[in-house]
Design goal:
- The structure is a single chain.
- The protein has eight helices and seven strands.
- The protein has 272 residues and is of the alpha/beta class.
- The protein has a single domain, classed as 3-Layer(aba) Sandwich (Rossmann fold).
- It has a seven-stranded parallel β-sheet with strand order 3-2-1-4-5-6-7, sandwiched between helices.
- Strand 1, helix 1 and strand 2 form a beta-alpha-beta unit.
- Helix 1 runs parallel beside helix 2.
- The site of nicotinamide-adenine-dinucleotide (NAD) has 28 residues, from helix 1 and helix 4.
């Protein structure tokens, strides 16, 4: 059990797609800041349980449970929320992290791969935000733990603003997420719900292992990063934990780029 006055003490977070990668690091960092955490997975039960075990055996962290569910299915998202509320009492923080890529040149992209990426990366974010807002409004303000009624963090990407040839479904899903996040901010800010996005650049996880796991791929990646370091999941976890806390209370309706400067068009560094 964490100490009273850790930034997220007494709060509960759901992190979708958190058996590995960025989601796992976010879940661990939120727990370290005092939150109880639901780790959601779609198919990797063992990895999710291992991540929960790491949290539950850390005497400085909150408690973790594991709930299966596909974020693209409304019934599954409702189950993730119901089980969390029945175990921890409510939800204060929703980190809609789950995401995927199915890459093809546009003229060869099967409709089902277009639809699947949009379903997980955009519809899944909508379903999580909807369930979170319903719970925040049902539960009402808890001024003893936070100045906000609730916090939604969407895991976006630099590709919400940088076009990405060969990945149009992914870029379209993240571009759509920018407008979803800003519209939620406009609609629910007056009720003290904060909604923001984090946009990672290149972070070493399974999603891009084919690139960073070989020397040539690493070099290509580094050319896109002014700071000359590939990100690690903990870079994102730290920002998510701070963004969820009252230290970031006045941040609403924005995207925080955590990308070593990737969004600054490094291709133009030497005159273009
Ligand atoms: P990852 O593949 O390790 O993690 C994605 C997780 O989402 C996996 O655990 C996967 O099982 C889960 N998931 C996929 N579909 C799901 C579904 N329908 N329901 C529930 N869970 C599902 O990759 P990651 O890099 O950790 O990605 C996390 C998020 O960060 C994604 O939204 C991704 O788009 C975003 N992101 C990652 C990078 C990067 O460089 N790694 C860059 C920008 C954005």
């Amino acid at each position: 059990m964490t100490h009273y006055k850790t930034p997220l003490y007494g709060q509960t977070a759901i992190v979708t797609g958190s058996s590995a990668g960025i989601g796992k690091a976010v879940a661990k960092t939120l727990a370290k800041a005092g939150a109880n955490v639901t780790l959601n997975y779609r198919s990797s039960q063992e990895a999710a349980e291992e991540a929960a075990h790491e949290i539950n055996t850390d005497s400085d962290a909150g408690t973790a449970i594991v709930v299966q569910g596909d974020v693209g299915q409304e019934n599954d998202v409702n189950t993730i929320f119901k089980q969390t509320i029945s175990h921890f009492g409510t939800v204060d923080i929703c980190v809609a992290n789950a995401g995927m890529q199915l890459d093809h040149p546009l003229h060869k992209m099967p409709l089902e791969d277009w639809e699947q990426v949009l379903r997980v990366n955009l519809t899944g974010q909508f379903l999580c935000a909807k369930a979170a807002i319903l719970e925040f409004k049902r539960r009402g303000m808890r001024e003893d733990v936070s100045k906000s009624l609730g916090k939604i963090i969407h895991m976006s990407s630099v590709h919400e603003i940088i076009p990405w040839a060969g990945h149009a479904n992914y870029a379209a899903s993240k571009g759509g997420l920018l407008m979803l996040m800003e519209s939620i901010c406009q609609e629910y800010g007056p009720e003290k719900i904060r909604c923001n996005s984090i946009a990672p650049g290149a972070v070493k996880t399974e999603i891009n292992k084919d690139v960073w796991s070989n020397e040539e791929g690493r070099e290509q990646m580094l050319k896109l990063i002014p700071y000359k370091r590939i990100g690690i999941p903990e870079d994102i976890g730290q920002v998510a934990s701070w963004l969820a806390s009252d230290q970031a209370e006045y941040i609403n309706g924005t995207t925080i780029y955590v990308d070593g400067g990737m969004n600054c068009y490094p291709g133009f560094a030497n005159g273009g």
